[in-house]
Known about the structure:
By secondary structure, this protein is an alpha/beta fold. It contains 14 helices and 15 strands.
Amino acid sequence: MKISCIETFILRVPLGKERFYSSQTAFPERNSLLVRIETDTGIVGWGEGGQYGPPEPPAACIHYVLAPLLLHQDPMNRAVLWERMYGLTRDFGQKGPYIDALSGVDIALWDIVGKETELSISNLLGGRFREEVRAYATGHYYRGEDVYDYRKNLSALVEEAKGYVKQGFTILKVKIGLLPIDEDLFRLKAIREAVGPEIKILVDANHAYNVGIARRLCQEMEQLGGILWFEEPVPPEDYEGYRLLRSETSIPIAGGECEFTRFGFRELFTRGCLDIAQPDLCACGGISEFRIIQGMAGAFHIPVIPHVWGSAVALAASLQVIATLPPFPYTALPVPLENEPIIEYDRNPNPLRDSLALHPFKLQEGKLTIPNAPGIGIELDPTVLKEYTVAHQRSS
């Protein structure tokens, strides 16, 4: 079996009035880079890469740099191919689009191997600890015509939080960092009062703060109670800032979605930056590299909770690896996030996730079932793929 064709699909869905903001930028659309790899035996694997910027650069990396190395190679040799791709690009591509591209290719190769062996990726990785996983609702972004008028939008924010609870979510992730901290704290307190003390809250700043501001926020958030982590409080390059903040607060510090490969996570682990590591399969180097990062994290007794953002392909692949994550540590009673992994389930409009799979994901009682079909466990709807594809390229 040899690789005969590599294709990329750039997908875009404008959001119109449903656009939203994080601390860093507006989201006027949902976009994705899908990678399709076909073999000479007719097996097709799907992957996804490029989560944090325009999808065109990683697509170019695939066709102009990686494809000549991959074509006519045996996809079963995915570990060999990973090392060859990284070795070819490491002098100029240790982070960013090249690793995004490599990630998408790697996930597609794992999908092929699963389909060839008729095993799910979780079975290929050694088996499952669970068949379903507790989801947390990522939402509470900045919305509306005037996102800076937080009091005007407060009632909608509160109703949003209550709506997630009604849907069965017991853990909510709240975005902060765009407004002055007093106003963001006001938003947090309003959500806490609306949902009650039993609902747990995750806070995500998307690296909006310096250490001094983040320290003050931690002191205030400790008084709210039920804050299970503070995600990306400072810029990803500020390892010392992460370490200092972690040493001063009782709130667990999470991060790593903007880090790449084992080499980037080595710095986070050895410098004592994190309580929770969040590699993203579509950015950190794919499934192959995720397993190495997970092993490193285990040696430091750091839980791994993958960051998830993107289409149905990203979610399906993430569910496969979450199925294999061991308890941290083992106890007789699994408790979400205390010793059991959870999965991010973004609640903003996303047809690329909700409509692209032939059999859509179903949220039941706040949990997602892990697909058990070969490979990543899903197949894509060709009609939906065609509808949202704005650019297509093929190397063969």
